[in-house]
Amino acid sequence: MPHAIPEPYCWDESFRVFYDQLDEEHKGLFNGIFDCAKNRGDKGKFDSLYALLAGHFKFEEGMMEKAKYSEFSAHRDIHNGFLAKVKALEIPLTDASVDFAKNWLVQHIKDVDFKYKGKL
Ligand SMILES: [Fe+2]
Ligand SMILES: [Fe+2]
């Protein structure tokens, strides 16, 4: 069963991974996607979201690598696959693009990020 998409689209306690910076960054990603969903033709907001995603993934990967987390490289590949898809999205964003991004983040945090809880 996929995890429910919060409405309005914002972070809540059910997404907590218990690493403060990662939780703060995840909140920022929810806000960034929310912002882009409300301003679908705004390339600047979209570019900021992309930078935020890339920065978060880099930091999260750094923590995994430092902890010698066993699923590091598979997790990094998932990040890179998503970044490539986001990069290919067209402005203005469509309903399908917005739903894709909203859904990806929710499922990724709860199904993939959650696996590193307590291990970093
Ligand atoms: Fe991740
Ligand atoms: Fe993450």
TrEMBL record:
GO terms for molecular function: iron ion binding; oxygen carrier activity. This is Hemerythrin. It holds the Pfam family Hemerythrin. It comes from Themiste pyroides. Coiled coil: none annotated. PROSITE patterns: HEMERYTHRINS (PS00550). Residues 18-119 form the Hemerythrin-like domain. The keyword Repeat does not apply. InterPro entries: Haemerythrin, Haemerythrin_Fe_BS, Hemerythrin, Hemerythrin-like, Hemerythrin-like_sf, Hemerythrin_metal-bd. Belongs to the hemerythrin family. Fe cation 2 binds at residues 60, 75, 79, 108, 113. The keyword DNA-binding does not apply. It comes from the Eukaryota.
